[in-house]
């Protein structure tokens, strides 16, 4: 959506496809606005850090998945990284990047929902979410004949329309274990508080899946790999599994990568919250490959 004079461009050849007498080249094209790059460089210059490579979160996800041996030939994987303010969705087919979409939603939406409902500060709401996540345990499956929970509302807009609040554009299958609800802490239960923001997230992710599988005529997604600060919330995994009908939903664990070196104290945050560092490990993999 930007003028070519406003962006840096880069590209790479992904695949060559022969269709009859035609030879088609599948290209991954990247465009980044000058002001975005300049802002990143100002930060690194202030920190007296010399930059060798500028990477993209969504591409770093694929690099991390590759170095962690998460990608397999004959399989389509959706890498979903949930940051504080945005979500990167990267579809990888046969180990090759195939489709990328960013959504303006993030973990902050969950925290702000708790902050408003409990009338507390952002930091306190974040601690409530972290403590609640740590205490959640999978509950036994519902007995036969039990009434299933109502489905989340379906996205109403067309697949080709811009995603809601999509950056850079203006105006525009299986069952997982049930999640055991916890008693309310000073008010409405957290699973009720988080229902609305999670419904928005799942709706946007589902639109990405529908576009990928139906408009691009690609094969269905076999597996989800979640990363980011809130990836370990069981309610999130359960909701995505139910609404996308994908049984295999896992949380990324890049702490097992050979790139993770150093003394125990230095890597402790990564080993305690590995899913939060998926992008960082991917950037490290790119940097190591360039040496």
In short:
This protein is α/β, with parallel strands linked by helices. Helices cover 36% and strands 19% of the residues.
Structural notes for this entry:
Helix 3 crosses helix 4 and helix 6 runs parallel beside helix 7. The strands form 2 sheets. A 5-stranded mixed beta sheet has the order 5-4-3-6-7, with helices on both faces. The chain has 291 residues and is of the alpha/beta class. A hairpin with a 2-residue loop joins strand 4 and strand 5. It is built from 9 helices and 7 strands; from the N terminus they run E-E-H-H-E-E-E-H-H-H-H-E-H-E-H-H. The two termini are 34 Å apart.
Topology (SSEs and partners):
Layout: E1 7-19, E2 22-33, H1 34-46, H2 57-67, E3 76-82, E4 87-93, E5 96-103, H3 107-118, H4 122-135, H5 190-193, H6 195-215, E6 223-228, H7 234-244, E7 249-251, H8 268-272, H9 278-290
Parallel strand pairs: 3-6, 6-7
Antiparallel strand pairs: 1-2, 3-4, 4-5
Helix pairs in contact: 2-9, 3-4, 6-7
Characterize the largest beta sheet: strand count, sense, and whether it forms a barrel. Answer: 5 strands, mixed
Instruction: Outline the low-pLDDT stretches.
Output: 137-144, 148-185
SSE string, helices as H and strands as E: EEHHEEEHHHHEHEHH
Mean pLDDT: 79
Helix content: 25-40%
- Can you tell me the overall shape? globular
Structural class: alpha/beta
Q: Report the radius of gyration as a whole number of Å.
A: 20 Å
Number of DSSP-assigned strands:
7
The number of helical elements comes to 9
Adjacency order of strands in the biggest sheet: 5-4-3-6-7
Strand content: 15-25%
Gap between N and C termini, in Å? 34 Å
């Amino acid at each position: 959506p930007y003028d070519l004079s406003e962006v840096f461009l880069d590209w790479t050849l992904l695949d060559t496809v022969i269709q009859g007498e035609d030879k088609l080249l599948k290209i991954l094209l990247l465009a980044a606005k000058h002001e975005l790059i300049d802002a990143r460089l100002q930060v690194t210059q202030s920190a007296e850090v010399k930059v060798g490579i500028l990477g993209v979160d969504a591409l770093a996800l694929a690099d991390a998945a590759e170095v962690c041996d998460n990608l397999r030939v004959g399989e389509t994987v959706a890498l979903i990284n949930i940051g504080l303010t945005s979500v990167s969705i990267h579809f990888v087919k046969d180990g090759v990047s195939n489709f990328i979409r960013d959504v303006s939603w993030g973990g902050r939406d969950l925290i702000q929902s708790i902050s408003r409902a409990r009338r507390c500060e952002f930091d306190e709401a974040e601690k409530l979410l972290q403590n609640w996540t740590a205490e959640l345990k999978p509950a036994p499956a519902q007995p036969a004949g039990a009434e299933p929970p109502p489905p989340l509302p379906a996205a109403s807009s067309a697949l080709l329309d811009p995603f809601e609040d999509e950056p850079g554009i203006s105006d525009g299958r299986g069952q997982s274990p049930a999640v055991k609800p916890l008693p309310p802490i000073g008010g409405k239960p957290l699973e009720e508080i988080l229902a609305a923001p999670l419904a928005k997230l799942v709706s946007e992710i589902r639109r990405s899946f529908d576009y990928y599988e139906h408009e691009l005529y690609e094969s269905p997604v076999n597996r989800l790999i979640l990363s980011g600060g809130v990836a370990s919330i069981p309610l999130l995994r359960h909701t995505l599994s139910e609404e996308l009908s994908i049984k295999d939903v896992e949380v990324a664990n890049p702490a097992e990568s050979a790139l993770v070196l150093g003394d125990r104290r230095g890597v402790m945050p990564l080993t305690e919250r590995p899913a939060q560092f998926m992008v960082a490990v991917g950037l490290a993999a790119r940097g190591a490959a360039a040496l």
